[in-house]
Design goal:
Helix content: 55-70%
Shape: globular
Number of helices: 15
Radius of gyration: 19 Å
Oligomer: single chain
Largest sheet: 2 strands, antiparallel
Distance between the termini: 42 Å
Number of strands: 2
């Protein structure tokens, strides 16, 4: 790999994982355990969360999350996203990857860790009707909103830029409902239709709103403190994320879809990122190593996740 590509690879890995070699300390936990995990190879979750469209999904999820004033208050009051945006990103990636690829005990433990952090996130916010309300990161409404936004973002972006999902959209939503349950979501959607209905319910109830805090967060997400060399690619990914958001929500966010062919351009950037990072994933490799160990005589890439889970 050339010097330029190697430099890009190191910078990308540092941004996404906090480690220049792309293998953060917690990946080692993916190798331990005695079961295939909640999903397994060939599952919808493995395909979606192991794909490059996750880069766009993260941007879309962050943008959409700001529209709930309670969620925005929690970010504004408690998050250090301005001081340490990459640290917050790495923490989210750690939870996502661990729940997706780890064995069930490790995945559940990671969700408990996230829950403990949420316990201290409390305060008040002004809702869309101008009423002051208390909030806590563990409130059922906020947990449901974050889960729905997350699931919607990863499904939508993978549908546009990713490979076919095993079992289709319904399978992904049904599988990822388990992740919602692990962090306390009471009734996560289990089909694409339920996902759409729950998303629309927030809008129809008049819960979502835009204000100065939303505008400030959107400006930050549009122009994060990344290396200058990475910003051209990021701007394309940001434009792709905006293009993937339905018009009514783009308007609430104060964003417009670019007149340029950003969907095509985003696909090209994602291909470039895949080329730079290489075809393998340290997280998936670690998970396959664990699965190979608990299924003697079977290589990790030959394991049927559904068969093991049965």
């Amino acid at each position: 790999m050339g010097t330029v590509a190697a430099t890009w690879r190191s910078r990308l890995l540092t941004t996404l994982s906090g480690e220049g070699n792309g293998r953060p300390y917690w990946v080692e936990k993916l190798e331990i355990g005695n079961d295939v995990g909640y999903f397994g190879p060939d599952s919808a979750a493995w395909v979606v969360h192991g794909g490059m469209p996750t880069l766009v999904a993260g941007i879309r999820a962050l943008l959409m999350q700001t529209l709930h004033p309670g969620a925005m208050a929690g970010v504004h009051d408690w998050s250090r996203y301005k001081e340490d945006p990459l640290g917050r990103l790495s923490g989210t990636i750690q939870w996502l990857i661990t729940v997706t690829f780890a064995d069930t005990l490790v995945a559940a433990g990671e969700s408990v860790r996230v829950g403990r952090f949420h316990d201290r996130v409390v305060g008040t916010y002004i809702d869309a009707r101008g009423v002051e309300r208390p909030y806590g990161a563990g409130d059922p409404e906020l947990l449901a909103w974050v889960h729905v936004v997350f699931t919607d973002a990863f499904l939508a972006t993978h549908t546009i830029w990713g490979e076919p999902i095993p079992g289709g959209a319904d399978q992904y939503v049904r599988e990822w409902a388990k992740a919602g349950e692990l962090v306390g979501v009471a009734n996560p959607p289990r089909s694409e239709r339920e996902l759409s209905e729950q998303f629309a319910a927030f809008r129809d109830a008049g819960i979502l709103k835009t204000d100065d805090r939303v505008a400030e967060a959107v400006r930050f997400i549009r122009n994060p403190p990344l290396r200058r060399s990475m910003m051209p690619a990021y701007r394309i990914l940001f434009a792709g994320a905006v293009a993937s958001i339905p018009r009514e929500y783009r308007q609430m966010l104060g964003l417009r879809r670019s007149w340029l062919p950003v969907v095509t351009a985003t696909g090209l950037v994602l291909r470039f990122v895949r080329f730079v990072l290489g075809p393998s994933s340290s997280s998936e490799d670690a998970a396959r190593l664990r699965i190979s160990r608990i299924t003697p005589g079977v290589e990790g890439d030959e394991v049927d996740g559904e068969a093991l889970a049965a």
